[in-house]
């Protein structure tokens, strides 16, 4: 693989081959994981607790020693040129880990200093990143006074001070409310659109579906599915819709063979139906029942369904039998 000075933009942003990790207590956290993330991608790494996500991220960011396998960041092998690979990578951990008694501006500038960035340049970058994170007005206050959402945005701003080609975010919106989360989504989209490759781990599956173009699902140390988000969701044989209804729903809903139809409230219907079914058949049945649909929208739980299907005990048992 290339050295840091010859890191190739044509190489994968992250290339993992047969990665294994066995801890001293015998636990196999990773069992031969292979994964590739292309430059410019917004990639989701999903999995239940204990699946191996944190171990994988720890190895890529040189915080955990691997047992075997290869990891490359833009063509730079982490074994041959660890420092070079780390200069290409930014990490936003799940835990808030900056000095609460420092100001956001100082946190960003000092972080840049660790990587040899001159102070004058670091000050310019800090203003750019704090503005992008909507924190410039808080640049000179004690960080402990920031809200939870602001602290998480500061973590992202700090990581971007080194202009990483690959940014890894571990549960970046954990514990913040939906309004703040959506604001952070915009910041992350801006970072990605500016050319930075992003890998995101999250337990909010609607977050992954909204932001990411490709994903991998890991369970019990094994990648159980990976590929384009749309293609993986298309594998589901059930599709869900919500219908907004004019007027009140009747006491008795029509029975449409092959579907599950229920009322979430007096003006909304929840429908699950086979993907192969003609939706016009549903509209005809609703019309015959005197139900007029004003608008409809796709339910956002498709990724959750795929996730549960691939990481449940039944799926794990099938994988063990096939192994």
Sequence-ordered SSE layout with sheet pairings:
Elements: E1 14-22, E2 28-37, E3 42-46, H1 53-60, E4 68-73, E5 76-77, H2 82-87, E6 89-92, H3 104-114, H4 119-132, H5 148-159, E7 166-170, H6 178-193, E8 197-201, H7 205-211, E9 214-219, E10 222-228, H8 229-234, E11 238-246, E12 260-265, E13 268-274, H9 279-288, E14 292-298, H10 302-311, H11 313-322
Parallel strand pairs: 3-8, 3-9, 6-7, 7-8
Antiparallel strand pairs: 1-2, 1-4, 4-5, 9-10, 11-13, 11-14, 12-13
Helix pairs in contact: 3-4, 3-5
List its salient traits.
six-stranded mixed beta sheet, Alpha-Beta Plaits, 11 helices, Rossmann fold
Summarize the structure.
The protein is an alpha/beta fold and 323 residues long.
Q: Can you offer a commentary on this structure?
A:
- The protein has helices spanning 53-60, 82-87, 104-114, 119-132, 148-159, 178-193, 205-211, 229-234, 279-288, 302-311, 313-322, and strands at residues 14-22, 28-37, 42-46, 68-73, 76-77, 89-92, 166-170, 197-201, 214-219, 222-228, 238-246, 260-265, 268-274, 292-298.
- The model has no long low-confidence stretch (mean pLDDT 90).
- The protein has 11 helices and 14 strands.
- Helix content is 34%, strand content 27%.
- It has a 6-stranded mixed sheet, with helices on both faces. Strands 2-1-4-5 form a 4-stranded antiparallel sheet.
- The two termini are 31 Å apart.
- With 323 residues, the protein is of the alpha/beta class.
- It folds into 2 domains: 4-226, P-loop containing nucleotide triphosphate hydrolases (Rossmann fold, 3-Layer(aba) Sandwich), CATH 3.40.50.300; 236-303, Alpha-Beta Plaits, CATH 3.30.70.
């Amino acid at each position: 693989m290339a050295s840091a000075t010859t890191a190739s933009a044509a190489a994968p942003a992250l290339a993992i081959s047969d990665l294994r990790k066995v801890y001293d207590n015998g636990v196999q956290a990773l069992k031969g994981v292979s994964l590739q993330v292309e430059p410019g991608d917004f990639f989701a790494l999903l999995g239940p607790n204990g699946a191996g996500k944190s171990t994988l991220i720890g190895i890529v960011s040189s915080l955990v020693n691997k047992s075997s396998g290869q990891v490359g960041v833009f063509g730079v092998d982490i074994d041959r040129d660890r420092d070079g690979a780390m200069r290409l990578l930014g990490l936003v951990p799940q835990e808030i880990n900056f000095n609460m008694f420092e100001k956001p501006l100082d946190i960003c500038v000092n972080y840049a200093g660790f990587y040899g960035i001159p102070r004058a340049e670091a000050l310019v970058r800090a203003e750019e990143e704090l503005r992008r994170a909507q924190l410039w007005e808080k640049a000179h206050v004690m960080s402990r006074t920031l809200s939870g959402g602001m602290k998480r945005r500061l973590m992202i701003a700090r990581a971007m001070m080194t202009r990483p080609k690959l940014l890894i975010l571990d549960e970046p919106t954990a514990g913040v409310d939906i309004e703040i989360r959506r604001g952070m989504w915009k910041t992350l989209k801006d970072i990605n659109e500016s050319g930075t490759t992003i890998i995101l781990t999250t337990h909010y599956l609607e977050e992954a579906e909204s932001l990411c173009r490709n994903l991998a699902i890991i369970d019990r140390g094994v990648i159980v599915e990976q590929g384009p988000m749309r293609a993986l969701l298309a594998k589901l044989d059930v599709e869900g819709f919500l219908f907004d209804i004019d007027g009140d729903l009747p006491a008795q809903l029509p029975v449409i063979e092959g579907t599950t139809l229920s009322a979430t409230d007096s003006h909304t219907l929840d429908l699950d139906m086979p993907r192969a079914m003609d939706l016009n058949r549903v509209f005809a049945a609703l019309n015959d029942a005197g139900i007029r649909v004003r608008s409809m929208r796709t339910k956002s739980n498709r990724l959750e369904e795929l996730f549960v299907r691939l990481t449940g005990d039944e799926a794990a048992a099938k994988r063990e039998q096939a192994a």
